[in-house]
Amino acid sequence: MRIKLTVAYDGTNYHGYQSQVNGTAVQDVLEKALEELFGEPVRTMGASRTDAGVHALGNVAVFDRETRIAPSKIAFALNARLPGDIRIMDSCRVTDDFHPRFQSTVKTYEYRMRNCRFPNPLTRSIETHVYYPLDAEKMNEAAKRIIGEHDFASFAASGFSSNTTVRTIYDAGVRREGDCVIFSVTGNGFLYNMVRILSGTLIEIGTGKYPPEKMTAILEARDRSAAGPTALAKGLVLKEIRYPDYHPEDAFPESSAGEAVGEK
Amino acid sequence: MRIKLTVAYDGTNYHGYQSQVNGTAVQDVLEKALEELFGEPVRTMGASRTDAGVHALGNVAVFDRETRIAPSKIAFALNARLPGDIRIMDSCRVTDDFHPRFQSTVKTYEYRMRNCRFPNPLTRSIETHVYYPLDAEKMNEAAKRIIGEHDFASFAASGFSSNTTVRTIYDAGVRREGDCVIFSVTGNGFLYNMVRILSGTLIEIGTGKYPPEKMTAILEARDRSAAGPTALAKGLVLKEIRYPDYHPEDAFPESSAGEAVGEK
């Protein structure tokens, strides 16, 4: 049977989510824990290859395995075998045709900026420090301009190739919480480095280098050089991946039932 | 002249704030940075010896040194020489009679509990994970019972000795923010391990082991064994130390002026 995992991690010490030739990726550590649990190698398929240093609260991975462990208990069994910077937040059964990438998805990212004189040492690995005062209202105004279906070619890392650079953004906004300015964006897909380039552009708007209307001009340019710099990886968190057309809880109501204890 | 530093740190990798025989303390690293900056050893006096693993956003240290660096710029100069887990959030001049401990102080601590099935890997070093559901309202009701002047002998680590175990708590409360339950407490002083024992007791009340009224009975017992366990160090943050009777900005208005740039 196919098991879906919700994977959270502090990306600071990993070379991204997906296994690669150089360095340890989150996927390597997850597959090692699965091998420990099941006594033989287990391959996983991940939903999102996050870059080195990028974090996640809701990345998704699946694997196929017959087991007598209840699907919802697999999260507990894996967490007992994982280091503290990776946690499986949920595990449930899905149908064998569920694919974490080819299914239609809605992804939400957040980019956190600590906006005061000095970084906060307690949250330094999950925030980008911005010294110059940011006008969160202007940034929010600019962020709203990317909502809808657009060609985001200006916000793709140069060298990125894909069939299309058109994506749909369902929601985007910037809010201030104390000394933190947070950019939140939800869409049906993101080009390579897109959220970090959007964030770098929003920082330039927030410091007053460009007015909020500039966002629309940058979109229309369809040219990477029109946008701002790529913001640091460490401020970025993949918050959630939803599968709006897929409802495993209908197929397997027992496996997706939460824990009675510890559940609110 | 005497300089006052506001010291923030992630205590995870330190043997507490104050220098000691074994292991590296925050104070050691701070004094090393001061020595690098001034070219000779500089001794500091700290306000609060936090335990190994306890964090701070607003501990206070002072040192005496003639220098042509503007007092407010010393924070920048030190931060350039400190590791990322220690930041000087502010520096200003104080009068030579200012002592960070003997001055009357108002300290605020926060204790953070992540209350869901699994810890959050992004904030795992600054939160204590509590699996069982916590009733934050009942915890808040219990916390309110410690406000005022009381003998806190029940909440001092055994072996702790002091002239008196009477302290005044000005404010205390528990609130929920999403999956986090946060205990905040402000007082004129705290016994050894007092906030962690209060937190451990509040957790027992939050899980329903004891009713909120039990807090008053525990206070009146004046006996460590009446209270709950000492909660883990990593959930505790020393947020702020105020000196209500001391106003250095009146004595040295120029030195305490904030930076024009980066200041909101």
What's the structural blueprint in terms of helices and strands?
The structure is a homodimer of 264-residue chains.
Chain A: E1 2-9, H1 26-38, E2 45-46, E3 55-64, H2 74-79, E4 86-94, E5 106-114, E6 128-129, H3 136-144, E7 148-151, E8 166-177, E9 180-187, H4 194-206, H5 214-221, E10 236-242, H6 248-251
Parallel strand pairs in A: 3-10, 5-6
Antiparallel strand pairs in A: 1-3, 1-4, 2-3, 5-9, 5-10, 7-8, 8-9
Helix pairs in contact in A: 3-4
What does this structure look like?
2 copies of one chain form a homodimer. Chain A has 264 residues and is of the alpha+beta class. Chain A is built from 6 helices and 10 strands. In chain A, strands 1, 2, 3, 4, 5, 6, 7, 8, 9 and 10 form a 10-stranded mixed sheet that branches. The longest helix of chain A has 13 residues. The radius of gyration of chain A is 19 Å and the shape is globular. The two termini of chain A are 28 Å apart. At the A-B interface, strand 4 of A face strand 4 of B.
- Kindly name the structural category of chain A: alpha+beta
> Averaging pLDDT over every residue of chain A, what do you get?
93
Tally of strands of chain A: 10
The best one-word shape of chain A is globular
User: In terms of quaternary structure, what is this?
Assistant: homodimer
Strand content of chain A: 25-35%
What is the helix tally of chain A? 6
Give the termini distance of chain A in whole angstroms.
Answer: 28 Å
